[in-house]
Design a protein that fits this description.
The complex is a heterodimer of chains A (325) and B (335). By secondary structure, chain A is mostly helical. Helix content of chain A is 80%, strand content 1%. In chain A, strands 1-2 form a two-stranded antiparallel ribbon. Chain B is mainly α. Helices cover 66% and strands 3% of the residues of chain B. Chain B is built from twelve helices and four strands. Chain B has helices at 42-73, 80-99, 104-127, 129-132, 138-161, 184-206, 208-218, 220-225, 230-256, 263-277, 282-302, 308-322, and strands spanning 8-9, 34-35, 175-177, 180-182. In chain B, the strands form two sheets. A two-stranded antiparallel ribbon of chain B has the order 1-2. Chain B is globular, with a radius of gyration of 20 Å. In chain B, 49% of the residues are buried. The chains are: A mainly alpha (325), B mainly alpha (335).
């Protein structure tokens, strides 16, 4: 009975924290300048990428190292369709979703029936090839010069509109992933991650679910990339630089891999940190890399895991005090 | 009358030509690409085939390092390109500040040794705990740690040496392999790779340590019953693997120049090769390396030279579709 009360109290705490957080995030653009609006907009873009990467890497245990490339494919697909063929923007974004999901499907079918390491290697090579391809087809993509993209939401109040757009996108992604995680599919994916052989024995079609998770994750990245292109107004092959992928890994690991809140907190923290300490240049990346190595080496679970452990420690102390009195 | 070569080096426009038909001046060439094809005849084809073999063998050096580490520890070292970069930088420092260009071979040996020691330290600090601590998923741990390590090394290089491109002086005069005029550095890299690979082969086949490595690749548990310290073996294997990458970096430094991300293309080829050849198989790596070199070389003569770095990926996809275990499958023991 007491346990039940405890869980319901902690659930209440969680819900109230979530509500407070969302109220703060929703009201944020009204008392910050344009600069912070932009930082948060980019942070929400990374929330989408980090959360969807967490689905394939954290929950399914399949390391895709081309998440940034899927975002770039989405961005370029939408931008090229809109500029060259006069598609409306929503059609471009839908096409971005389908093209990156299709790429994910092809790579997934080829690699995911093999050991986990094949996907990582093939996606790494895929990302580098995408970067070279974009740079080399400069007649179409304008290569390293960068492709100018028609912007979304023109005129007054663009910053606020984009802020809410990306906030909605991030919220939808996190919501989708938490739904997946609680459904049967989430159990399948975690079972596959923990022990694929055992999962197969239990009758889970492991390859099919892995491919499904990979398609969802890369399709989400494609949508995020398309919106990012229309927000930013410029796409360059730098988007497919490995640094971007490293950023996603850093965000997820520092925030806490295999948790819903982890990538969200990680992405927002890291984005604010990078912007605040902009003048330090590469030193920031060294700090992040050391933090990731330390977190992995100490078997820590990032910010989320540490907070959770701290909470458990506090409640245990309280319980101990209660027992004494 | 000296025959004028059909090929010119790509991307070296503007300079005067020397007697081998190379233009002088130092813009960045791409990975061994040629252009200005005048006519397709047998000499030309033979030149492309030789160029492909040369570059393919050089790619294999990197891939052998990756596959050796994978074979012993069952992890992929994602920071291989950064060890390549460190090898190149060490070589640059050694030959420009201490020894001079004439002693480049000593520089290669010294930079291999330096990276070998660095690799041993990295393995002791970061990879060894993987087998001891409460690590749930070893591949996940190793992937995260080595990616972070790569980011760390790249940015340390930017901080230490700046985001500049360094070009060490060439090791040897330009020369000719059968019908192919080739830059001296590439010739040296080809010869050096052959020597290193044969030494590596002899080490694996003839020495006690080499046999221990073969045993570890077959069964980690089994060799421990034979009284071999498998952690010491891991450490040395990691050192040798990254030292091979460093050798590639040091040998190719004058050819492809040094900058903090100079290892990324070489790593990409290395990964493609190990999947094409079949994970964990060293003969497979050699064959796949030569094949990849040939395909890139012939792809750029018959199709478009701009996309030569993409052909390898297409070949990889084709192999995954047709024979997903690679050309030379190494059967893996499960547990």
């Amino acid at each position: 009975m007491e346990n039940l009360n405890d869980t319901s109290i902690s659930k209440l705490k969680g819900v109230s924290l979530l509500l407070a957080g969302s109220v703060v995030v929703c009201l944020l653009p009204f008392w910050t300048g344009q600069y912070y609006q932009q930082i948060f907009t980019i942070a929400f873009y990374y929330v989408v990428l980090a959360s969807s990467w967490n689905l394939i890497a954290g929950y399914t245990g399949q390391f895709s190292l081309a998440h940034h490339a899927f975002a770039a494919i989405g961005g370029y697909t939408s931008a090229l369709l809109v500029t060259r063929f006069g598609f409306p923007m929503w059609a471009g974004i839908l096409a971005a979703l389908s093209s990156s999901a299709l790429m994910g499907f092809i790579l997934g079918v080829l690699c995911l029936r093999m050991r986990a390491i094949y996907l990582a290697i093939a996606t790494w090579a895929f990302a580098e090839s995408v970067r070279i391809f974009i740079s080399m087809t400069y007649e179409i993509t304008r290569g390293d010069l960068g492709l100018a993209v028609p912007k979304i939401f023109l005129g007054e109040g663009r910053g606020v509109a984009c802020y809410y757009l990306f906030l909605g996108l991030a919220a939808a992604t996190v919501f989708m992933i938490s739904i997946i995680n609680r459904s049967k599919m989430g159990y399948y994916l975690r079972a596959i991650r923990d022990d694929e052989m055992a999962a197969r024995v239990m009758g889970i079609h492991a390859t099919r679910w892995k491919i499904f998770s990979f398609i969802i994750s890369s399709g989400t990245a494609g949508i995020a990339g398309a919106f990012y292109g229309h927000y930013n107004g410029l796409l360059t092959p730098v988007m497919v630089d490995f640094n971007e992928m490293a950023f996603i890994v850093i965000m997820v690991v520092i925030g806490g891999i295999r948790s819903i809140a982890g990538p969200v907190i990680g992405a927002i923290l890291i984005e604010i940190f990078t912007e605040t300490f902009r003048e330090f240049g590469e030193v920031r990346m060294v700090v992040f890399a050391l933090a990731v190595i330390a977190i992995a080496r100490l078997y820590n679970e990032g910010v989320v895991g540490t907070v959770r452990q701290f909470g458990q420690w506090i409640s245990r102390r309280k319980q101990a005090r209660k027992d004494v009195t | 009358m000296p025959r004028k070569p059909h090929l010119k080096w790509d991307g070296l426009g503007g300079g005067a030509q020397d007697k081998y038909g190379f233009t002088t001046g130092k813009p960045r060439p791409r990975w061994g690409s040629f252009n200005e094809v005048t006519a397709i005849d047998s000499t030309l084809i033979s030149q492309y085939v030789i160029a492909g073999i040369v570059i393919g063998l050089i790619y294999s050096l990197m891939a052998v390092g990756i596959t050796f580490i994978y074979g012993i520890m069952r992890i992929i070292n994602w920071s291989m390109g950064e060890f390549y970069m460190i090898g190149g930088y060490l070589q640059y420092i050694i030959i420009t500040h201490f020894l001079g260009v004439k002693e480049w071979y000593l520089g290669v040996i010294l930079s291999m040794l330096g990276v070998f020691l660095l690799g041993m330290v990295v393995q002791w600090l970061l990879i060894k705990p993987m087998f001891e601590g409460p690590v749930e998923k070893r591949t996940e741990y190793a992937t995260i740690v080595t990616i972070a390590l790569g980011v760390l090394f790249t940015n340390m290089a930017v901080i230490g040496a700046g985001p500049f491109i360094y070009s060490p002086p060439g090791y040897y005069r330009n020369t000719q392999i059968i019908t192919l005029p080739v830059s001296g550095t590439r010739f040296i890299a080809f010869i050096g790779t052959m020597i290193l690979l044969s030494l590596f082969y002899l080490f694996l086949k003839k020495t006690w340590w080499g046999r221990a490595f073969q045993g570890a690749a077959q069964n980690r548990m089994g060799i421990q019953t034979a009284g071999i310290d498998v952690f010491r073996l891991d450490q040395i294997a990691f050192g040798i693997g990254v030292a091979l990458a460093a050798a590639a970096g040091a040998l190719l430094a004058p050819e492809f120049y040094l900058h903090p991300r100079c290892g990324s293309i070489a790593t990409m080829k290395g990964f493609e090769i190990i999947v094409i050849g079949g994970l964990g198989s060293i003969p497979g790596v050699l064959c796949a390396g030569l094949l990849l070199g040939l395909i890139e070389s012939l792809g750029s003569v018959f199709f478009n030279p701009s996309f030569r770095d993409v052909y390898g990926f297409l070949f990889l996809i084709a192999i995954l579709a047709i024979k997903p275990t690679g050309l030379f499958e190494e059967r893996e023991r499960v547990a």
